[in-house]
Amino acid sequence: MKSFRLLLLSLPLALAGPGHAANPWNMVKQIEKQISAPVFPDRDYPVTRYGATDDASADSRPAILQAIDRCSSDGGGRVVIPRGRFFCKGPVVLKSNVNLHLEEGAELIFSADEKDYLPAVPTRWEGTEVFNYSPLVYAYNVKNIAITGKGTLNGQGSKNIATWKPRQKPDQKKLRKMGTELVPLYERVFGEGHLLRPAFVEPVSCTNVLIEGITLIDSPFWVIHPLFCENVTVRGVRVDTTNDNNDGCDPESCLNVLIEDCYFHTGDDGIAIKSGRDNDAWRIGQPTQNVIIRNCTFNSKINGLCIGSEISGGVRNVFAENLYIPSATDAIYFKSNLDRGGYIENIHIRNVRADSVRSTLVKFEPDYKSESRNNYPTRFRGFVIENVKGGVAEISGIDISGFARMPVEDVTIRNLTLDRTPIPLIVKNAENITLKKVMINGMLQTLP
Fold it and tell me: Nearest 5°: phi and psi at 180?
């Protein structure tokens, strides 16, 4: 099997680390120049031409795959799902130069039977490489792909696969042990007979990816999961699914990512930036870097904007602005643990409004669900968070907590106001922390 890492081993290094320029936001324009949405020939391949029917009880998958094959072999274009309800008994597998386009009023309904997502395919599950059930929309090592339009993808996760979480622990532990012990990938075969839920939309080792305009509902697991990809745009997408672990968008070990104008109503994090888990990710060594997030709304059961916790490959150069968080557990959240190693650095966030959070407005947590005391702490350094307005945080306002041997470093928070919280400020095991015009509970906050 061709490694899904080959694509990224030749990618350019990150534009810069901490201290890029006097105004680090200038870096956004440089990243944008490297991100261009794929362009497709002006040719349409309606799936009805190949036998798909507006009948939610009839399997349109053979017709969809045939249209994708023809479109790609002709050099590209749009594979069109017209208005209507179309059933897909298994995964849609995208090929190079194909734009899967759902017209307004179109609904693509996926099978709830896990057997339809076999054979197992290469992926990562919670940051560890594995052969597992295919994601519902999958692409592997292809270029110039898109999912666009005003239609809806319906994963039907709640009918079966999304309910597996209470029974997944044995498989979860087995896979994590394999990753820690660096068991060869070809021996990590799960899928049939196992309970590791597949993602909804997952391009793997792809270049030039566009996901735009669509609505995604009832996901079995993580919703949009670009993995080992370069040049990814997620724009104008509506994610409305609240099953367990329904993260909205999880770019993982990706280079040059733009997420903008999206709405996330999710059962877990709105956005969670990742780069793999523990020893398995150290082996690969592929960070997520150069990420732009802007003009997004997070109505999340868990966190709004999150980095972690699977970040063993590192995360750097993240620029997020103009975010609205009407409800979440933590609004802005950086998390890792003592198994991860890696780093989170050069993070810039501005212009955030959070109405109500059940925990903390801004939180640094390096000891999140540590499974051992291996003492591989993650390096947190280089954060600027500014122009944040919060209503209520039920536990604390700002929590910056590091380890004595690995403190959180170089954090500036300025122009932050929070109306009400029981504990305004927690700072421990942290160095070079700067607070400027931070008002919580009507009082100016200063460091102890």
Answer: -65, -40
Average confidence (pLDDT) over 141-146: 98
pLDDT of residue 144: 98
When pLDDT is cut at 50, 70 and 90, the band that residue 371 belongs to is confident
Q: How far apart are CA 431 and CA 428, in angstroms?
A: 9
Give the global pTM: 0.95
Three-point CA angle 220, 288, 316, nearest 5°: 130
Backbone angles phi, psi at 199, to 5 degrees: -70, 170
- Domain regions of the chain by residue span: 20-328
> What single letter denotes the amino acid at residue 6?
L
Q: How far apart are CA 305 and CA 297, in angstroms?
A: 10
Residues 77 and 98: their CA atoms lie apart, in Å, by 6
Q: Quick check: 344 and 334 in contact, CB under 8 A?
A: yes
* Residues 396, 273: Cα–Cα separation, whole Å: 23
| Structural class in CATH, domain 20-328 | mainly beta
Report phi then psi at 68, rounded to 5: -65, -45
